[in-house]
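Notebook entry, structure prediction.
Reason for the run: the old model in the group folder had no record of what sequence produced it. Starting over properly, with the input documented here first.
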Amino acid sequence: MAVELRCPECRAKLKLDEAPDAGTDIECPKCGTTFVAPEPADDEGDDRPKKKKSDDRPKKDRDRDGAGEGKKKDKPVKGAADPKAPRKRKSKKRETSKGLLIGVIVAGLVMLACVTGLLVYLLGRTPKSVEMMHYVPEDADSLSGLNLGHAQKYPEFYKALSGSFSSNEFKLAGDGIGRALGANDLDGLVDHVVFGTNSKGHSAMVFRTKSEFNADGLGKLPGAKQQSLDGRTYYAVDGFSSGAPRTRVFAPTNRLVVVCPQDVPEPVFKKILSGNAGSQDKTAGMRMGDLGKRVTRGTFWSLQLFQGDVKPPPAPAAGKDGAGGSDDGKAQFERVKAELLSGSKGYGYKASIGSREVRFELVVWYPDSEKASSTSRKHKESDLGKGDEGTPPRWWKSEVDPLGNKIKAQMLANIGCGSSGDLFYARSSVESADLKESVSSVANKFSPRGGSGGGGAGMPPTPGGPAGPAPGGPGPRPGGSKPRRRVRACR
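New structure, fully documented this time:
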């Protein structure tokens, strides 16, 4: 017989084909609640007396239960489940959206690709100095550079320093190009300048400007005549100093200006004009290896590569007394220089300006790390390696005495040396305030001053041969701002 029930949760009316047995679980199709079927109700109209359910238990048990009638029932334990309470069906866990999951994965991959691309760009991009070296002769082996932008961050020091190159050809060229491009002078125009010379004396200098410029401004240079070669434009202009021969100027980018002397052969200039396209892997910027990476970080730097026909200088013959006669200090210097550079692939030096001190470093590039480390050990054990606790050799005195006692004392106290891979380095430091007083003497001592590279028209000489500045043993090392005594001068 069909019956009707109501869900105790949503009060929906449920129709069943027949009455369920008492205690049967029934699920509401509307809200999903499961509840227990109630006891069947007595039929209305049935007047027959109801028989009491017989109790077969012993009398004492019946009497005991009867005595408890009328007492309040124990309260249900808090938290205990009521067997007659309706039970809710457990909801199914929602599955993660496949579209959302795919989106998260794609976003992660895109972010990883961006980070990877940034690292590849930062690690693989061409350093500024290397890019500039694309516009010097391909076989250049003598190079030097001035990071003027960094030097100008120390105005007082730069003011004292700039006086040492006020009449230099590169200063005059920078001033002339600066006026033509609307930057007034070298200081307003140039951020960095690089010079490159090969063993034949062919040279070029490259200016990197502080901001972008319009290359048409080069047509305003004195005597400028626009010309072209292989479809590339350059200007033939008057020399930048009185009586200087005409020279060639061009702008390969809106941040670079190249000055190349007129006497450079056309085949060489043609390659310079193209940035040595097709052979940039042969340019000095690529051939200088770890030596160049270390040296070109200086505010002022210079390096010499020993490649091809360019070899390290030979040791000079000793005098009758075995020390070079009356010129023993300089002769000893040349012998130390030849010994230090023997078998090397090149050397360089740099000066880095700081607010408290100027740091000098000499670097020699050897074919292997064993040669570099053995050279370091040797100089650590030398008299000069002991700093102001040792007795400096004669050549040190002859080379450093002209700088003055204060500078000489600081350089000796702060001396140190070591090795890194196939590089041997020697370094020292001098207080910036003290160096300003004798900056011209130091500039002459540590700046390029001639050699087989010559420098060419419009170029400051670079250290290409015997006359050029050479490593004289452990020199410059960054240290404290005051001369100090140390137990171990070399580290």
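Summary: The mean pLDDT is 78.
The old model has been moved to the deprecated folder.
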